[in-house]
Target: Transcriptional regulator, TetR family
Amino acid sequence: MDRNTRREQIAEAALELAAKSISAITVENVAKACKIVPSALYRHYRNKDEIFEGLRDLVRNKLIANATLAAKEETSPLAILKNLALRHADLLYKYPGIPRLMFSDKITGKNSLRRKGFLAVMTEYRKTAASIAKKGQNTGEIRSDIEPDDVVFMLLGTVVPPSFLFHLSDGDYDPRPQIRRNLLLFEDAVKNRNISEES
Model:
């Protein structure tokens, strides 16, 4: 197994542990989950801080991959944004460790470097979505009287609250049906009605 693949496998194992508890992310536990000895893990991550950096990179890669796939599967910017939200919902459902990680004091606490790293990931994700919204405004599909950033926050608002309930219910609540209904309201709110009427 090459180094990058092994690093990703280790980060995936840490993310699985995060679904149970952030405190479960230790070098020993992650090594055990990967079925390797801790000394082998140290070849890829020197300490727990670096494992959290690997988690940050893993989450970033999954978010960017979702944006790439959403753009490939749809043609109109509005459809891409809706697809992105559904993919985001599926990601949070498949990896419950992500919301646990994002709301953990291990991320939002005193470690400013760790917090800034995860904030940079979310900022990049929002900018990517905002550029899609801007394209929708340029083509006339999305209302031009609202800021692209506001479109993105409305989009995230369709996903985050139901996903938070999923997190609070410890997986008993499936957020995806509610998110699909929310997206209908999102589309109604941001779609350029003049285009709809003309077509």
